[in-house]
Amino acid sequence: MDIEKQTAGIWTAYGAHQLTVCPDLPEIERWDWGIADTAPGLESLGDVKGLRVLDLGSGLGRHAARLAALGAEVTAVDASSTQHERAVTRYPSTPGLRFVCADAVAHLQDAAPYDLVYSVNGVPYLDPHRLLPALANAIRPGGRLVFSALHTNSAGAGPSTAVAPRPENLRLPATTLDHPVHMWVLTPQLWEDLLTGHGLAVDRVTAIDAPQPDNSASYRLYEVRRPQRVPSRPRTSTPPPPHAAVGVGVGVIIQSPDGVLLGQHRRGTWELPGGSVEPGESFAEAAVRELHEEADLVAAAHDTIVLGTLLDRVGDVVRVTVPVLVTRWSGLPQQSEEAIGSWRVWPLDALPQPLFVPSAQCLTAWDPTLLIDHPPAGFQAYTDAGHA
Fold first, then answer.
1. What's the predicted TM-score (pTM) here?
2. Which residue numbers delimit the Nudix hydrolase domain (predicted)?
């Protein structure tokens, strides 16, 4: 994070200088991804009309303005306050264009999912281990990510074979001075491993080389998509507590007009509130208790609907999970001392990944139309939708 802040500071100093000199820069007519007069161009993004689009590292905002003119709803994010000021000054009231000054990861974690995310050379300035988990869930299932990344610098140094930042010289536009920065300059295989490890699929990698024979600079353009179906991550095979013959738990479904409530477990999965049923508890009582313990929401057992029972096996352990729909509650989700935090309401057509398997099974038992992949489990619905 310190490395990223240092780079943002350089761009902020550059932006302050440009605010003073006020250069007359033309609008973008020919789109490029890092090297002028090279292909591919804007066609890599496809038809953007009507799409919700995010520009990561938007700078002056000329790329974002071009897409807004084509009918996209564009949010342009930059961490530099002066670059943000330049953009807002240049485009004070452009229809379909909104500028945000924020850390990219913070914005991605809070924003509703986008149809398309793109970045012209901005991604390598961010730690992929910090960026990609947030980025993967900020793209709607079926949506796309398109970004360019440095592959070989002008001195001929090729990409690194380890996921670590390295020193590079940044020559800012309209200047002759080099600024030392750190960037993640990775091989295409490393980028693909990172992207697929976060549930994304790489469709195409295109080489973009400098046309001058004495210039070794080369970039790679990555065209990536998020699959339509949401994956899940297996649960533990740890045996149930000694008092239980089988592992029995509840998954609590809290639905609002904006989607369902999910929290991120410390191991990275997104999960419904829920947990084990204590001795003597009904499923409804367990759901109410777990909801309060994990998310600080208050509900009553008579405001729940026990949907049925899910039965599967993990190794030698039989697991029973009971999805419980809560129809009325009070309070706002709060992080507790439990293992789950970062509570957020997610749209049903843009659920985060990976989902915890029992949560995925509960959600598809509740709504079989949801595009979620998970191991099969036998589901016995309660025909009277009563409490148990």
1. 0.86
2. 241-369
